[in-house]
Specification:
By secondary structure, the chain is mainly alpha-helical. Helix content is about 85%, strand content about 0%. It has one domain (about 5-440). Helix 1 runs parallel beside helix 13 (about 310-345) and helix 7 (about 145-160) crosses helix 9.
Length: about 450
């Protein structure tokens, strides 16, 4: 029997594990995005100004969420590795440290967001009529920051035990609750944009509480009061992953803020088309993000088990599957672009312009998939610094600089702005691929080298 034949069962087993972990995450993302679609569509029925009021602070919300996301990335990598080692006491200590960071970061972020909420719409260049509702929307949402942070970190700890179904169910329930409350607050109580903000804040709060309660019911994750005491060694491990991951997210989201700010100055119709198109495209990222989460968890477990072959097969399969699925996703996006835009807006001008942008970006979905799956591989290994360098250089050296030239210097339109975005995504995919190839040649796989 050839080596290929002997390896087939091993490949099938890893592929099966990857699919079983990825499918619940994909479903979670699909339903979450669909609920966001419904959210956007419900607000969109109030008119273009209402849409702009909600969209103005979207990139700032991404920026804020990037901080707890970084902690959740470290939690997933470290807890999954400890799970592979069958080291339950360490899993408990890691969870305790993660929850301490969750509480501290949640309180700090709440204070910052509440204080800055009146100024953010002004900084984003929103029209005067939009600034008041946008500020109120962001303020109300920010009140749920602690439970929102808990949803990230507790969900990551649960996924690290190879359980993606429970986080999926909790997130689905929270999103369905958001839709129901949207209807009640926006339409039944006639609260408009303010009602949408209350619905979001309440659903985040309930979701975070439930996610924490479920995590604490797991024997391998349930921490004691001694586990929340600062552990220098474990916090250093957290920092080695979370700090560069946070830097990556912050520099990326700040780029999105500048990017959106430049687009918002192009007029309400243009900005509404841009914002809705960005939201619509999110559904087509889902296969990549689902596989990225599964890849990170499996790689962390393979490291804990010290199984080099399992690690390499996981990397190989995840890259192949993600690029293929994102190619198919791009094909679908191209053909449904205009009908999809019409779901979100009653304005034919907004829908037409947004559909043009979606058709442009559809051809580059495989590059985006390649980018995010390689990020998942690096995060699963605990290597985040290289991603930070690539993200920062490409975002600011390509997307922001070229967009500034297109909008502020040459006075070009939205199509050229999206070309800048596409160039950024392709550059990041290619650079991360080169980084991955170099890492495979140089790295000692059993060591989590946070200096990579």
């Amino acid at each position: 029997m050839s080596n290929t034949d002997r390896n087939k069962p091993e490949y099938r087993a890893i592929l099966r594990s990857m699919i079983m972990l990825a499918i619940p995450t994909m479903i979670e993302h699909i339903m979450s995005t669909l609920m966001q679609y419904v959210d956007t569509a419900m607000v969109g029925r109030l008119g273009e100004k209402a849409t702009a009021s909600v969209s103005t602070t979207t990139t700032i919300s991404w920026l804020v969420s990037s901080i707890p996301w970084a902690v959740s990335t470290a939690t997933l990598a470290l807890v999954s590795k400890a799970n592979g080692e069958k080291n339950v006491p360490k899993m408990k200590r890691l969870t305790g440290q993660s929850m301490t960071l969750t509480l501290i970061l949640g309180m700090i972020l709440t204070g910052i967001c509440v204080i800055l909420s009146p100024y953010i719409p002004v900084w984003m260049g929103a029209e005067e009529a939009v600034q008041g509702p946008a500020s109120e929307y962001f303020f109300i949402q920010s009140l749920s920051m602690i439970p929102r942070t808990a949803m990230y970190t507790c969900g990551a700890a649960i996924r690290a035990t190879k359980d993606t179904r429970v986080p999926m169910r909790i997130n689905l329930t929270a999103n369905l609750l958001n839709v129901v409350l949207n209807y009640v607050f926006i339409y039944a109580l006639h609260m408009g944009v303010r009602g949408a903000a209350f619905a979001t804040a309440i659903s985040y709060t309930i979701g975070g509480i439930v996610m924490y309660a479920v995590m604490m019911r797991r024997d391998e994750l349930k921490y004691s009061h001694t586990d929340i005491r600062p552990d220098t060694k474990l916090l250093k491990e957290f920092g080695g992953i979370a700090v560069p991951a946070m830097g990556t997210s912050v520099t990326s989201c700040l780029g999105y803020v500048f990017f959106a700010g430049m687009v918002s100055g192009m007029g309400t119709v243009t900005f509404a088309a841009h914002s809705i198109a960005v939201t619509a495209e999110e559904l087509f990222y889902i296969p990549g993000y689902g596989l990225r989460t599964a890849t990170s968890a499996l790689i962390g477990n393979a490291l804990g088990e010290r199984d080099e072959r399992k690690l390499h097969i996981t990397e190989y399969l995840s890259i192949q599957m993600t690029v293929l699925m994102m190619f198919l996703s791009g094909v679908v996006l191209f053909f449904v672009a205009y009908p999809l835009m019409r779901v979100f807006t009653i304005s034919a001008d907004v829908a037409s312009l947004g559909a043009q942008m979606l058709k442009l970006v559809a051809f580059t979905e495989p590059f985006f998939g390649l980018m995010i799956v390689i990020e998942g591989i690096f995060y699963g290994k605990g290597k985040a610094k290289g991603i930070f360098v690539v993200e920062t250089a490409s975002m600011w050296g390509i997307r922001i600089l070229s967009t500034f030239l297109c909008v502020k210097v040459w006075g070009l339109g939205l199509k050229e702005v999206w070309y800048c975005m596409i160039a950024d995504n392709i550059c990041k995919a290619l650079c991360l691929t080169l980084l991955y190839v170099r890492d495979r040649k140089r790295a000692k796989w059993i060591i989590i080298d946070n200096n990579s």
